[in-house]
């Protein structure tokens, strides 16, 4: 008998609601949930493929152990025994820092990765922690932490109520939005124009999103920070700056004009490719709009001056009076939000070889290969990867593959043997998305509207396989010296009791002064992520505080399968600030100290080709290229070049070309298109499925070209350590005609 379940899609940041029909244990249909309080039926091509992902014959269901060049299927006990046997002696002999850990993007899309990775990192005790954040959004975390006091105090565009959207380096029609959670970005963008608003997109490529805008401006890759500095300068010099009520809660406003004196519409024109009169006009429009918001994303962050661009985005919103204002850049208020008290700190330790400072407890992933290959104390000898494919998604991926093969031991939690996990000695496959419960702990902290929605597992886990949180907890037990056979229920109980005890003793907690035993008893019917989620909901800003008031708990969400709408965003400053003095820091020293590096680039003019990445709505980094239905149609991994560049270089549409950078050389199919800015080429992120030892049959038939083989691991954004993935100098030469 068919049954229907509802769940939030876990594949990207949009958090769309899905309606899933299951018949005889198999997915019969997936469509958008028209009653979902947030997405209202919107769905992208990826969301309908959860059934295909679940049934993918290449998806692993049992642990794999590598013996020489042979992979054997093992029991779970055998796999964890192998990890304990080989990992523990490395840590004992060489110390905690001899073990590194890499956390991939999917970790923040699931409860287990969000809740159970941190205890694992703590048990390992290593400083060698890396993640996808430093090829993505670390500049935003750093600038937000330094300006507002916490790396998750990130302003999001109030796109449902704004009159003017200035968007840079973002393509939400392809990505579904990023660091700004909202289903159906295209529909929301159309609504801006329908209510008389205006959209301006600044990007080196005329993207799919640009088709929805009033105006598109080409900009030379890597110059976003300089252009934003000019926008801020023009507003300050025109006398139209109006920070409003936040002026009293901000320090450093008076210093901005002097710090940015080198940047104006004229001084950045040659560098950016945007005419001075256009820059002045956009600055005037931004200042004069009834409400406005500047929104910058990956194209501005994964660049040489990513942190400066992120900071200046928020400065522009601040000086126009649009920060923390309806229709401007606002702060989400998630149902599971916890208090943000301690001021943000970074640089507490540095990497061993190049001495790059940590941020958010992480080191730049651009240094991972050298931390493995360079001899000396604290060299990484063993590595744990969780839901990531850094051999395709991080800088100098060829060099990293060499480093991975040199490790003494490697463990991967992943459903596939991909270009990274094929180097592992043990692969631990988690259940499929449909076999796991879900609540979007991370991305509803970046949502343009406050919602809460819990999804129970659609399908049961069979054959005695552990859930993902149990896999992580068992690894944590090994790292803590408790052994592979430790009592996981006891460990989970200890962790929960510790959190309850700390909060009960906290004067500002909603359960301050309560009996921890009473709270634990009220949570006793649940285990694992559900128990933690119930606790976070009940102690959160909308929670019932365990009976002390009316409010949310997990039972309420279980009774509302389409979610609960908690309303639009509301102003939150200054109460949300957690800087040392409780004020916004408009000129953080760690950021403005990078301005001279940008000033030195002001005289640059376009010379040679620059390479940028791109996204597609049917793709998701590297791991959804094994879904056959998403791979149908035209090749989406081609090298895009403008017709004038193609004629000059001798490229033809459909031909092949060599692309060479300081880091490597790749060959790609050429697509000639006037959507590119002259002097700029584009390759998509996440391809390069040409490793014969990976087991991805569909992806191998559509290998594409590995952009990250061209990314120099030595090029990073200085304040944040983020990799420079955009604005890569390249030489392009023809190989074959079309």
User: Kindly, what is the distance between the CA atoms of the first and last residues, rounded to a whole number of angstroms?
Assistant: 53 Å
Beta content: 15-25%
The counted number of beta strands is: 26
Rough outline: globular
Could you explain the architecture of this structure?
The strands form seven sheets. Strands 5-4-17-16-15-6-7 form a seven-stranded mixed sheet, covered by helices on one side. It starts with a strand and ends with a strand. The longest helix has 19 residues, at 76-94. It is built from 24 helices and 26 strands. Among the domains are: 149-336, Dimethylsulfoxide Reductase, domain 2 (3-Layer(aba) Sandwich); 490-559, no CATH class; 608-736, Barwin-like endoglucanases. Strand 4 and strand 5 form a beta hairpin.
